[in-house]
Write a structure and sequence with these properties.
The structure holds 2 protein chains of 2 kinds.
Chain A (H helix, E strand, L loop, with lengths): L28 E10 L2 E11 L4 E5 L6 H9 L6 E6 L2 E2 L10 E4 L11 H6 L11 H14 L15 H13 L5 E5 L7 H18 L2 E5 L3 H7 L2 E6 L2 E6 L1 H6 L4 H6 L4 E9 L3 E4 L2 E4 L10 E6 L5 E3 L10 E11 L2 E8 L3 E8 L13 E5 L6 E3 L2
Parallel strand pairs in A: 3-8, 3-9, 6-7, 7-8
Antiparallel strand pairs in A: 1-2, 1-4, 4-5, 9-10, 11-14, 12-13, 14-20, 15-19, 16-17, 16-19, 17-18
Chain B lengths: L3 H30 L16 H5 L4 H32 L2 H12 L6 H12 L4 H8 L10 H25 L3 H9 L4 H29 L3 H7 L6 H10 L4 H33 L3
Helix pairs in contact in B: 1-12, 3-7, 3-9, 5-10, 7-9, 7-10, 8-9, 9-12, 11-12
Classes of the chains: A alpha+beta, B mainly alpha.
Bound molecules: adenosine-5'-diphosphate and magnesium ion.
Subcellular location (chain B): Cell membrane
Organism (chain B): Shinella pollutisoli
Main location (chain B): membrane
Chain lengths: ~375, ~280
């Protein structure tokens, strides 16, 4: 039984670790200058991006930044005020949701309460547009039911199921139609924490296996980092940055991205530094080459892992600040230390417990701080 | 929180009023229906079910009532569905409540006055005169089933719209979108999601309309002109013209029994639909 979309080719290159995904795939998506207004309110502002066929893309951002609206523009529940949306190279702005080769897992799951599990999953295959013969419907639905570990629940009412099972029905109901793109709006939001981790792994495996393009909205940046090939960071209706998890974490393009993806110690400069150097609380840093053309540096910062603590003032080579420890939090293998630094405010340090073994930091201790020049990120926006 | 005893005490006036205005007359009617017509009319003490046997002599009125109520309720629902659905699913915010207000606006004038308005509109100098002037021929509307149907639909449509609005409003937009997303257009979605989920509401609306209509008296009298004869009209005649109170009471009790049966069936059907839909 084929689960991958039937169409072949389409130009986009599937990443090599996708075995099944190779025979597709025109399931890429493109936004070109898409703006969506509700009345005078701009929910999505001039979005342009490309989504590679067969990839797992996450859209992250704070609540109300336009994530759901972006998904709805792809699904066909909203239409752009300005701009175009392409799926597999063809424009779809004029296509209604029911005409698009896309399926969606709703945040609420939106399962049909008057239908049992089997009929919910079979719903798309029984539509007038995409009707399949009864025998095929039965075979395909039963296969998905097995795959999603819903065997034995075929004739249960959907509201009798647990949250995790409901979510699997919602997934099954979408992927049974072989969509080119599967979109998921905060699929984990209704699950409890323990279950979430398992479901994340399952979702990742499912995507690899089907080779379908997944576009997932989440406000959980850890989820985005661990699942996605690429992440689109949105803020106030605009794209802040698009990149791989590694790029976003290690080369954040803006203060917003740095703080939103992972923990970050941000030091705002009192006045923008236009020259080749930046003065941070008495410490002079050279502006890195790749930032040189972007304008004045307005802030710098570093990840908690880059911050080193020592009881004695460091020797030559490291500039030091002093700070007082306000919290020490053990996280099993790691320890997080919160510091109050007179020159930079509150800072966060994170280190392996093993590395700190010989040195026990206590709340109230005064320590010296060290950060390598190369660990500083420079921001122009 | 009120003490349970205190709460019960506060309910007493309500119960007393209910007993006085509902239970009392009901028992009176029941007693009269088992009595006998006094030679000069009115009521004479007796104990027989003879009157209930004679109820069948009014079977034309019963048939008329059931037919026109069943038909009128169906037409009301069919006419109300698109309006209620549009208000519930396509209008937002203040527009939506303005439109709902307009729907109930007719209730602000007297029911009698509104029915008289139709009496004149359908009467000889109304619509028939207009149609004849245009040259479409001679028509008679007043005192026909058609006139009664028009009157009924006009009077009861707002109730149907309000009740169906509630039923449709409860269906989440996400379900309609999910259906869309799964390849079904608006019409197909309407029949495969909206109607099944609104079924309990459709059933309760239908039965309420049926019950209200079968108790109707004014519309058949004014617009049916004695030719379209409802049970309500039969009861009035029995009491006021033939002064046969016992038979009138027996007919009234029979009508009420029929309504109770309808209400009971409606409950059963709603519960069956509910089991499938969970949405009331
Ligand atoms: N149909 C709508 N009408 C008016 N405003 C809307 C509508 N849909 C969304 N919005 C507004 O657009 C903004 C973005 O919404 P949304 O895309 O749901 O954000 P997110 O999913 O990132 O939390 C919000 O401020 C929201 O209030
Ligand atoms: Mg959202």
């Amino acid at each position: 039984m084929r689960l991958a979309p039937e169409a072949e080719g389409g130009g986009a290159n599937a990443p090599d670790d996708r075995t099944k995904g190779q025979r597709m795939n025109d399931g890429g998506g493109t936004f070109r200058g898409v703006t969506k207004k509700f009345g005078s309110f701009t929910a999505v502002n001039d979005l342009s991006f490309e989504i590679e066929a067969g990839s797992f893309v996450s859209i992250v951002g704070p609540s109300g930044c336009g994530k759901t609206t972006t998904l709805r523009l792809i699904a066909g529940f909203e239409f752009p005020t300005v701009g175009s949306v392409f799926i597999g190279g063809s424009p779809v702005e004029r296509m209604e949701a029911y005409e698009r080769p896309i399926n969606m897992v709703f945040q609420s799951y939106a399962l049909f309460p008057h239908l049992d599990v089997f009929d919910n999953i079979a719903y798309g295959l029984r539509s007038r547009r995409n009707r399949r013969p009864a025998a095929e419907v039965k075979a395909r639905v039963n296969e998905i039911i097995g795959k999603m570990q819903l065997s034995g629940k075929e004739h249960n009412r959907v509201w009798e199921l647990s949250g995790g099972q409901q979510q699997r029905v919602a997934l099954a109901r979408a992927i049974v139609n072989n969509p080119k793109i599967l979109i998921l709006d905060e699929p984990m939001a209704a699950l409890d924490k323990k279950l979430r981790r398992d479901v994340q792994f399952e979702l990742q495996s499912l995507q690899r296996e089907l080779g379908i393009t997944f576009i997932m909205v989440t406000h959980d940046q850890h989820e985005a980092l661990s699942l996605s090939d690429r992440i689109i960071v949105m803020n106030r209706g605009r794209i802040e940055q698009i990149g791989s998890p590694d790029e976003l974490y290690n080369r954040p393009a803006s203060r917003f991205v740095a703080s939103f993806i992972g923990d970050f110690n941000l030091l705002e400069l009192e006045k923008p530094a236009a020259g080749g150097t930046v003065d941070v609380a008495g410490r002079v840093l050279a502006v890195p080459q790749e930032r040189a053309g972007e304008g004045a540096t307005i802030a710098v910062g570093f990840r908690p892992d880059a911050l080193k603590l020592s009881a004695a003032a460091p020797g030559a080579g490291g500039e030091a600040w002093r700070a007082t420890i306000t919290n020490v939090i053990y996280l099993g293998d790691k320890v997080e230390i919160k510091l109050d630094c007179p020159s930079s405010g509150t800072l966060l340090a994170r280190a392996d417990v093993a590395r700190l073994a010989e040195r026990r930091f206590r709340v109230g201790d005064t320590v010296h701080l060290t950060v390598e020049d190369s660990d500083f990120h420079h921001f122009t926006k | 929180m009120l003490q349970p005893r205190m709460a019960r005490l506060l309910l007493l006036p309500g119960y007393a009023l209910l007993a006085l205005t509902l239970i009392g007359p009901l028992i009176t009617t029941l007693v009269i229906s088992l009595g006998r017509r006094a030679p000069s009319g009115g009521y004479e003490t007796a104990l027989s079910i003879e009157n209930f046997a004679s109820v069948l002599s009014r079977s034309t009125a019963f048939l008329n009532t059931v037919q026109l109520s069943a038909f009128g309720a169906a037409i009301c629902i069919l006419a109300a569905i698109p309006v209620a659905f549009f208000i519930a699913k396509h209008l937002k915010g203040s527009v939506r409540y303005t439109v709902l207000f307009l729907v109930v606006l007719p209730f602000f004038t007297s029911f009698v006055a509104r029915t008289y308005a139709w009496y004149f509109a359908l009467g000889g100098r109304g619509l028939p005169a207009v149609l004849e002037w245009i040259g479409l021929g001679r028509f008679r509307f007043l005192n026909t089933d058609f006139a009664v149907a028009i009157g009924i639909i006009y009077a009861y449509l707002p109730i149907a719209i309000l009740m169906l609005f509630v039923a449709f409003d409860r269906i989440g937009d996400d379900l309609l979108e999910a259906s869309n997303d799964l390849g079904r257009g608006k019409v197909e979605t309407f029949f495969s999601v909206v109607i099944p989920l609104a079924m309990p509401g459709l059933i309760s609306t239908y039965s309420l309309l049926f019950i209200l209509l079968s108790g109707e008296y004014l519309i058949p009298m004014l617009l049916g002109g004695g030719k379209v004869y409802f049970i309500g009209n039969a009861i009035v005649d029995l009491f006021l013209q033939s002064r046969n109170w016992p038979l009138g009471s027996a007919v009234a009790i029979s009508l009420m029994s029929m309504m109770i049966v309808v209400a009971f069936l409606s409950q059963i059907f709603q519960r069956m639909a509910n089991r499938d839909g969970r949405i009331g």
